[in-house]
Specification:
The structure is a homodimer. The first copy, chain A, is of the alpha/beta class. Chain A has 2 domains: about 5-75, Arc Repressor Mutant, subunit A; about 80-195, NAD(P)-binding Rossmann-like Domain (Rossmann fold, 3-Layer(aba) Sandwich), CATH 3.40.50. Helix content of chain A is about 40%, strand content about 20%. The first copy, chain A, contains 8 helices and 10 strands. Chain A has helices spanning about 5-25, 30-40, 40-50, 65-75, 90-95, 135-140, 150-165, 190-205; strands at about 30, 55, 60-65, 80-85, 105-115, 120-125, 125-130, 145-150, 170, 185-190. In chain A, the strands form 2 sheets. Chain A has a 7-stranded mixed sheet, sandwiched between helices. A 3-stranded antiparallel sheet of chain A has the order 1-3-2. In chain A, α1 (about 5-25) packs across α4 (about 65-75). The longest helix of chain A has 19 residues, at about 5-25. Chain A starts with a helix and ends in a 5-residue tail after the last helix. The relative contact order of chain A is 0.09. At the A-B interface, α1, α5 and α8 of A face α1, α5 and α8 of B. Chain A binds a DNA duplex through α3 and β2.
DNA sequence: GGGTGTGAATGAGTTCACAGCT
DNA sequence: AGCTGTGAACTCATTCACACCC
């Protein structure tokens, strides 16, 4: 069975909202209420969940704890993921210092850079290694996910290296669109593109859209 | 005429690629070649551009400089945009220090926080102001775009304030999905959600998808 | 009554394929 | 020959609406 990518994108949102509901001590939630929290229609939520099973009770809704457990299992949030960071410039250091990853099970276990003045330095408990050693260090399954925070010019070769090491998921902060083989997933974090997509609407006038 | 959002998202990518081609000294480019650079089909590119006009020459392709100018005009990249940052914690300071905005015409002109120990301090040439003064400071058209880097709990109220000041575009780094009126555009930067959407595929096995 | 699960209907977006220009 | 621009075909995703269950 093939699940639309849009569905996959929403599952973590559901999990996050359910985590909040759990923290609020709620036992049960309806697709309606979940939808209001996330700006998603209730029909959409039920349809999405129906790809994976029947988790609700008619007339009642979903058990918060149970649905949260199911979603964590489906999305793969019930384990630790090891990440390798490439590029320890200004942006890379901010990523290393970000406290939001580890509570969600994402841990940066290696950091690489090409700048000799950075190599060997310790940042947040991690020693920066030369990017030339990336494949040597990582190809024994050292990381599940790659984070690329290099200049655009080097992103493709870095990603090629990561892919050769079996990395099949890449979070790309570089302003570039590298090619990857089938089965490798890339997500782009690009605030400038996000801003530019919005300026189109700002420029166009006050109307919605 | 109503333009699909996916088209709007791709226009800045075209502009970026054309900027690179220009820097490489290229005069002409085909939809085919542009597509290879961006992992977008040539039919898609031609269709996207056709929403706005006829910019190419059959048998030849697109004039790089001319198409770049047109796209900049369409997307609104040919002017300066003023942004207000709310939340000057660890993440907010990284955003203030990011060098990628100003070359693209995006300038942070104000920074707000609720932490008394931050208020009044200068960061990157900007004095941090109390978030309580946001509407007073901004409602005279002080900013076109809001950047929200607060905790999830305060994101909604901050965004409400920004919207009351006429801000119609928000770049949201907070892990929250606030409600905004029609005509206000929100883009979410959420690396954890991006990672979680990928772990679904990692967990599922080695196949593509 | 209230809310789920789901086939059917609708809608949106992408790809095809080709006429037409250079 | 080469490449654009675009209606038509098609694929994919969302919404509707209702049977069914609590």
């Amino acid at each position: 069975m093939d699940i639309p990518e849009g569905v996959i994108d929403r599952l973590p949102k559901y999990a996050r909202a359910l985590g909040q509901l759990e923290a609020e001590g709620r036992d049960v939630v309806s697709s309606q209420e979940l939808g209001v929290r996330l700006n998603i229609t209730h029909a959409q939520i039920r349809k999405d969940l129906s790809y994976f099973g029947r988790f609700g009770k008619q007339g009642r809704g979903y058990n918060v704890q149970m649905l949260l457990d199911e979603l964590r299992r489906i999305v793969g949030l019930n384990r630790q993921w090891k990440m390798a960071l490439v590029g320890v410039g200004r942006l890379g250091r901010a990523i290393l210092g970000y406290e939001g990853f580890s509570p969600q099970g994402f841990r940066i276990v290696a950091a690489f850079d090409s700048d000799p003045s950075l190599i060997g330095t310790r940042i947040n408990g991690l020693t920066v290694k030369p990017v030339a050693d990336l494949e040597k260090e990582l190809c024994d399954g050292g990381a599940d996910i790659g984070i690329v925070a290099t200049p655009a010019e080097t992103a493709q070769s870095v990603i090629d290296s990561l892919v050769r090491c079996g990395v099949r998921a890449i979070l790309n902060y570089a302003p570039a669109f590298p090619n990857v083989p089938d089965g490798v997933h890339v997500r782009h974090i690009d605030p400038v593109l996000a801003l530019q997509a919005m300026t189109y609407h700002l420029k166009a006038g006050a109307g919605p859209g």
